[in-house]
TrEMBL record:
It holds the Pfam family Flp_Fap. This is Flp family type IVb pilin. It comes from Metarhizobium album. The chain crosses the membrane at residues 20-39. InterPro entries: Flp_Fap. Keywords: Membrane, Transmembrane, Transmembrane helix. The lineage of its organism: Bacteria, Pseudomonadati, Pseudomonadota, Alphaproteobacteria, Hyphomicrobiales.
Amino acid sequence: MTKLFARFLKDESGATAIEYGLIAALISVALITGATALGGKIGDTFNGLATKINAPT
């Protein structure tokens, strides 16, 4: 039983898969956050342009 437990502690194959999953999750959160912030700024820019175009001269 102790050999089985020692072999289980030395096995790192699952740990690398979890690490890759965490890295992918962090990258996707960063991309979503960046896209949301950028999308808001682009929307504000287009709204400002629309207001200027539709303003009476």
